[in-house]
Amino acid sequence: MNPNKAMTCTSRSRPAWHWLIPLPLLEAALLVSWSSGFIGARFSIDYAPALLVVFWRCVVVTLVLLPFVAGQLRRTSPVALLKNAGIGLLAMAGYLGGITQGIALGVPAGLAALVADLLPLGLALLAAGVLRQRLAWQVWAGLLIGLVGVMLVTQGALAWGNAPLWAYGLPLLGMLSLAVATLWQKYLPAEQSLGLLPNLWLQCCVSGLAFALVEGVHGSLAPLPSTGFALSVLWTAGISTMGGYGLYWLCLRRTTATRVASVLYLSPPITMLWAWAMFNEPLSWQMAVGMAVSGVGIWLVVGTEARQAVSSSR
């Protein structure tokens, strides 16, 4: 079965629940939950080291989901478990670790976020260069226009910090790590794909172990006895991990990797709205213009891929 066209079914006649929800609604929910991760990171830095919060968010998700996934995990082959664990290490440990460690070493948060927002372009370049996929020029144009919009939104937060030169490569490696994980997940054979909850559990489990090794070298892994720390962990575990990553993988099952990633071009302005609502940070017309420009780029990508899908199905 082709994993790109396969429809996950709960029975032979009834599609999985997420196929009953219009894709734009899933993508809108993805934007809200994905952007919440940056707000959670912003909130948590006042209470604990970034990687300590990331470690405990993985622990919380692992503990909460275990009773619901234990049976399916026991029935899954070791090869499938290893492949999905590898995807999890790249998607969570690689992505989050690269960005947070870059910021911890002095890379400005705005610059690190901009590099992370290169994900749609990174995915397209990997798909074209490694998988030899041919993307229409309208898709490339849409990706570049979307990036211009992101740069307009984040321009006020961009600065060149005092980090070691090599540290600026960490956010880039994190972005590429998620891009590789996305393509690996997209083209994983259907028989080796896990359900959403087992997939999230396994990814959080292996990434939690990785974060424990990294953070354990620098200090204690014990949770901090503060309300701020607890709220940071619960926010990022519930909204950013189960919501953000869960919806990311759901949308990936419904459409192309390029479309899913391109939608995330709207993540920076949504993050700015979060920051305005929670931290009273000012909004500007430049942010609104940037959001509109990114919207034009996404419209080009989505429209072009929709026309190609209709043409290929004839």
TrEMBL record:
InterPro entries with a match to the protein in the record: AA-Vitamin_Transporters, EamA_dom, EmrE-like
Q: How does it sit in the membrane?
A: Multi-pass membrane protein
For this UniProt record, the keywords arranged alphabetically read as follows: Membrane, Transmembrane, Transmembrane helix
**Compartment annotation:** Membrane
Q: Which residues form the EamA domain?
A: 30-154, 166-302
Q: Where are the transmembrane segments?
A: 20-41, 47-69, 81-99, 105-127, 139-160, 166-184, 196-214, 226-248, 260-279, 285-304
Q: Does the keyword Nucleus apply?
A: no
Q: Which GO terms describe its cellular component?
A: membrane
Family affiliation: Belongs to the EamA transporter family.
Q: What is this protein called?
A: DMT family transporter
Q: Name the source organism.
A: Pseudomonas zanjanensis
